[in-house]
Amino acid sequence: MSQSLIFFFLRNYYSKTGQHGEVLINLSTREGIKSDLDIVDSAMKNAIYQQAKIGAKQQALQYSVNNYTTTKENTLSAQLVIQDTDFAKEIVDLNQTNVLN
Fold first, then answer.
1. Which of 27, 67, 75, 89 lies in disulfide reach of 4, CB 3.0 to 4.6 Å?
2. In the prediction, which pLDDT does 38 show?
3. DSSP H or E segment with residue 50
4. What GO cellular component entries does it have (predicted)?
5. What are phi and psi of 54, to 5 degrees?
6. What is the total count of domains within the chain?
7. CA angle at residue 6 from 15 to 47, to 5 degrees?
8. What are phi and psi for residue 34, nearest 5 degrees?
9. Strand ranges in the chain using DSSP code E only, listed in sequence order
């Protein structure tokens, strides 16, 4: 009779591990199936929770990137307006100086 085993990496959830650290899930008895599937279910819930946390952090980072990009664009735009204003003022001053001389 062959063993009914499935390999998962759930070290934090289960103490029966194989030679390479893999978790051994027992599917040979009804009790083993229920017990081990409860562990798999718990691990999946934790993985989903962790995925949601990562997604929230990713969203916050994306918001920060978008905010930074907008701030950078606004700053560059303001610098160009200031440069254009200074240039126009210098032309007016130069023309006044030329007219007066």
1. 27
2. 84
3. helix 30-100
4. bacterial-type flagellum
5. -65, -40
6. 1
7. 65
8. -60, -50
9. 5-8, 23-26
**DSSP β-bridge partners for residue 25:** 6
Q: How far is the C-alpha of 89 from the C-alpha of 51, rounded, in Å?
A: 57
Q: Is the pTM of this model over 0.85?
A: no
* pLDDT tens digit sequence for 15-31: 566 666 666 777 778 88
Instruction: Report which of residues 15 and 63 the model is more confident about.
Output: 63
Asked if residues 40 and 8 have their Cβ atoms less than 8 Å apart, the reply is: yes
Cα–Cα distance for residue pair 73/76, rounded to 1 Å: 5
With bands split at pLDDT 50, 70 and 90, how would you rate the model's confidence at 74?
very high
User: What region, left, alpha or beta, does residue 83 occupy, with left being phi > 0 and alpha being psi -120 to 50 degrees?
Assistant: alpha
Tracing tokens 């999946």 back to the chain, one arrives at: 44
Which candidate, 37, 10, 32, 13, places its Cα nearest to that of 21?
10
